[in-house]
Design brief:
heterotrimer, A alpha+beta (about 500), B alpha/beta (about 500), C mainly alpha (about 100), A: about 500 residues, alpha+beta, Arc Repressor Mutant, subunit A, 3 domains, 9-stranded mixed beta sheet, 3-stranded antiparallel beta sheet, 16 strands, B: about 500 residues, alpha/beta, Amidase signature (AS) enzymes, 8-stranded mixed beta sheet, 3-stranded mixed beta sheet, 15 helices, 11 strands, about 35% helix, binds magnesium ion, binds zinc ion
Amino acid sequence: MFTAERVADEKDWIKGETGDWEVIIGLEVHAQVSSNSKLFSGSSTKYGAEPNSQVSLVDAGMPGMLPVVNEYCIEQAIKTGLGLNAKINLYSRFDRKNYFYVDLPQGYQISQFEHPIVGEGNIEVLPIDSDGNTMDLVTVGIERLHLEQDAGKSVHDLSPDETYVDLNRCGVALMEIVSKPDMRSPEEASAYVDKLRGIVRALGTCDGDMEKGNLRADVNVSVRKPGGELGTRCEIKNVNSMRFIRQAINYEARRHIEIIEAGGSIDQETRLFDSIKGETRTMRSKEDAHDYRYFPDPDLLPLNIEQSYVDDLKAKLPELPDAIKNRFMSDYNLSEYDARILTADKIKSDFYELVANGRDAKIAANWTMGDLFGALNKSGLELNETPVSAKMLGELIDRISDNTISGKIAKSVFERMFNGEGNADEIIEAQGLKQVTDVGAITAIVDEVIANNNEQAQKAVENPKLLGFFVGQVMKASQGKANPQVVNQLLREKLGL
Amino acid sequence: MTDLTKYTLDEALGGMNKGDFTSVELTQAHISACESATELNAFVTTSFEQALEAAKNSDLRRAKGEIGIIEGAPLGVKDLFCTDGVKTTAGSNILDQFEPTYESAVTANMNAQGMVMLGKLNLDEFAMGSSNETSAYGPVINPWRKEENLVPGGSSGGSAAAVAADLCLGATATDTGGSIRQPASFTGTVGIKPTYGRCSRWGTVAFASSLDQAGPIAKTVKDAAILLQSMAGYDEKDSTSLNVPVPDWKASCGKSIKGQKIGIPKEYMIDGMPDDIKKLWDNGIEWLKDSGAEIVPISLPHTKYALPAYYVVAPAEASSNLARYDGMRYGLRTNGSDLNDTYARTRTMGFGDEVKRRIMIGTYVLSAGYYDAYYLRAQKVRARIVEDFENAWYKCDTILTPTAPSAPFALGRKVVDPVEMYLNDIFTVTTNLAGLPGISIPAGLNADGLPLGLQIIGKALDEDTVFATASALESAADFNSKPAKWWIK
Amino acid sequence: MSNQKNVVNVEDVKKIARLSRLHVEDTELQSLADDLSGILGWIEQLNEVDVDKVKPMTSAVAMKSPMRKDIVSDGGKRDQILKNAPKEDDGFFVVPRSVE
Ligand SMILES: [Mg+2]
Ligand SMILES: [Zn+2]
């Protein structure tokens, strides 16, 4: 169900010298299974250990060593497949992909080639443009998901003419999720990865940590005239942030267009993304054309999964982002836009539900998305690093609704909370921000304001719009602390409105 | 004192049980025998000191009443089984200095049952060969000799020669296409390849994973039963290991085979089969009839294609299994101008010609454009061979065939034409492809006075019947010839 | 076998030698091509077998794949892992430079 027919929105077209172009994008995402031990051995997958301290004889490819599959990894792959609305293949198999490399001790990677554990599926993706506006919903097809071993790590800066090899990562289980070439803009591609990350996090099958390389993308890019013949694609390896994905696509699409427009042609090749220069460059050309000589791994038996096992996993699946979004729209009456932002991942939706619990859902949404997400964004923090917890934000909203403070004062309380000055009550107390509701105190201020603006007061009966002016003056005199309702009522009485 | 090396394993175990001699005495006698037989080149590495230490410990255990099924028996181990702290070469220069830090599942099982290991036995490099001439440590000489030196068969040539020459009471071996049974046939010993999955492959250097299976080479059928019992067993570290109990196979030896149906496959009567092998086969048929068995003609129509199918599947798996020998983490490294040159130099220096040839065949048959024509087709032919046996089991309980198409041949005679060498495995390779048990029993001498073996093939997991039939054949054949010990000067 | 048409030519030998990380001297290429052609030519008799509708054998035992529990039960044996290394330093395997 490759949607080659789909032509990018005109605004996503790239202007070239010979006219408009559109970019065609497919992604292969490697998501590390959140398992304790490796796919085929009992050594730990913990991040950041001493070199070669988490390596078994199996991982090191010692003579006579044999793989035994980790059942947890199989389960996570199936759950992820279900989360991608994909077909679970009851029969699947591990194949060997043969090639020589220093980080590949066996001389082959155990992967799934002919019979992957998960077949076709699809997910819905809602891209956002650079101004934060939502674009049209896009359905991205999933080609397959298969399990495979990760390789080791090579370190090149410990010796000028040698490579140091650490096999700790070797054999860690990866889910390779291959999309169809269904994306037409960098925004769609990063929204797709964001959505995938949301799904695997909600399922708990991968922690989605791109900085640690636990989720990374190979990006396939080609260009064509809008709706025209497909071009030759290049694969950009191991791009590990949303921003880099967009940058790499932009760079690569431009590069293709320039080459083609200059009369050249694109070589199908594998490229690297240099995140410092923001460029892609060719990987050292391998002397041979690849010939991986895949064949079924004779050390392993095919996986034959029972349908009842799949059904069982399906029944126990946690609520996924799309389902949470629909629930937010119906239960909390949120707009599609708000609901999508708040359900982009599990952390966000959990946070929002804590804030909204027992409160006005719309106000909770505004504070969470507008004020908090805005502040986090400005300071470059993730939600799990927020200085304002869901409980703190909820209490702030409570102080507005119980008239302790006005919405305006609440903004400054929030700022102080974000700067670590304490919770809402502490800040209101310390700063003396509590709203004045005492009618006597407010009457005194009202009287003073009317006295000072006698001329205006006389005109008020003919021109009731002047009420606003007086409210403003009273609020100003009370430093915003006077209860606006009381102020209104008193002014109407005194001005005879 | 009698020569303790003359005993069978069963007799020696009995002797120690009765207190006639100790494991230390028995071990010492075998060490002496080994020391006087260096000309046979049966060992790559000896571990006599450790053996004497192990024998001492065995005697202490015996005194406490802790007696394993091979308690105190001095045995040899094919140098394909990784042994903790004892060099393991696989007969290859590429593992010349490799000292494992782990013990193969098979030898660990045997250690737990009281094995005294005398050393590591010579073999064809990575078990690829049928004459032991591909070993980086030189060929093994068959103890049976006729004017010139003969090969002991392969790849378990060291194991077979050592047992035939009374250097050890028995030995471990492995069989991928006939590597236990053909050398047993060439040396007048008994060798059994059990059902695929009976013995764990963990810690044994892999040749072709879907075909490799460990088993013993022994002096008698009963010894083979005892040894196999000590080697076999479920191992959760090997995904292809069968989770079934290990029966008391020793008890199967000597059981009546009255009424049993023995199949004789017409396709094994190949063109150019030497007369003495035909005659031997006829003798076998008569002996089994005399034992009360019923002889039934059967057909295994795809027999002819077993060997070519094997020479696709085995090299394909081997080309991948041997990719790990790249000089990066262990074994030989020969530095080159860059990484790829280092890989190539290391592997070119490290592997011998036959291994390189098979790696290249394997690479070729798996490469783009050839996979379907060779590998996939071979696996389909393999399925047909399995089908052949399944059909045969409707008619018979076991199958009788010759073990090898010839008697032991002269050193250097067949190295020229690889295909001619491959034909050695023509009768044995079918059971590897189908995963079935097969045993070779010495059944007579040819006109030159050289040993010849007969093979019994059984149903999967039916080693019981295989041992019973082999044991009946053994009694009837009454083979008790021994090679003259010409190497003792 | 000598009159068999060559299945494998010198270029094929070069290619599979490269894929296998084996070095073949130029002077050996032809004889190796002949050798491999002999073997592969002999293997081609497999074409005589009717394999229509036959499922290829993919595992030697017909049973369910056994599975491991997700428990850390291995690793932490760096000395063993590095013991036979041609070169090691500071807990790493040291190998020829793998990038330029
Ligand atoms: Mg990929
Ligand atoms: Zn991958």
